[in-house]
Amino acid sequence: MIKLFTTLFLLVLSLVVQAQDTTSSDFRSLTLTTGKTSAETAILIGKQFMGKPYVPYTLDQTPTEQLVINFREFDCTTYLESVLALTLALHDVGHKPGTSLLEQAFRNYLTRFRYRNGRIDGYASRLHYFSDWLRDNERKGLITDVSNELPGKITVAKPVSFMTSAMYKYPQLRDPNTFKQVALTEASLSQQSFSFIPVKNIRQAEAQLQDGDIVMLLAARPGLDMRHVGLAVRQPNGRMHLMHASSDQSAVVISPYPISDYVLLHKRLSGIRVARLRSNTVPAVAVGGK
């Protein structure tokens, strides 16, 4: 039994190492071009991944919590985090766009976006709830919640309990300490009031969205804060659509419908929150290439 466990552990470890070893080659396969602003750069980078498959739970495949980098497949959150981290990393390297320098900057930003206070400290340190993600990354100065500035917004508080109420979905919560930490996070989020734009007002607010805005789609079900996320991108029809890793279409796509129509068509959604990546002017530079 011990020998079998050791063999399985070494196999998992080997797969993790192999995955980490492909990161540099993944970077070299990208062609990253900056826009005039961080938001414009995010749109350009986001389009690099169009057509990549939607795959859930890619962050839960290792026995211990560690930074997972995967440009081959995404869920909605890992897609957003990868695009934003690449955007800010590309801004930071500026006129020194070496692959190793960019990779290290990207790793740093991805860790900051994904983990509370930018530190990996077990499963509970990952920002699982998107309202927690928004709050923590605004505190870090990486993004700004602009929901309160949009027309039609209302302010509410919503109790959050989905993870601890559905433990069968999260095996890591079997650890009592991890469960306690997640429960404390839920309690904190439940006491937090926030502004959002309900379904009936999204068409009005959509006119004030900007390219590259982070659009978070609220869940209608009790106990869950947000169900989905993507980037706003203006289409030739003049309307804002959602660029996202779509479970419905099993790939990274731009939604065929404007954001207000998209939310109306998905009855499990109750509205949106909107944030913006920190405002930076980015020097024009191209990195990498196939």
UniProtKB/TrEMBL annotation:
Keywords: Signal. It comes from the Bacteria. InterPro entries: AmiA-like (IPR010846), Papain-like_cys_pep_sf (IPR038765). SUPFAM superfamilies: Cysteine proteinases. Pfam families: AmiA-like. Residues 1-19 form the signal peptide. This is DUF1460 domain-containing protein.
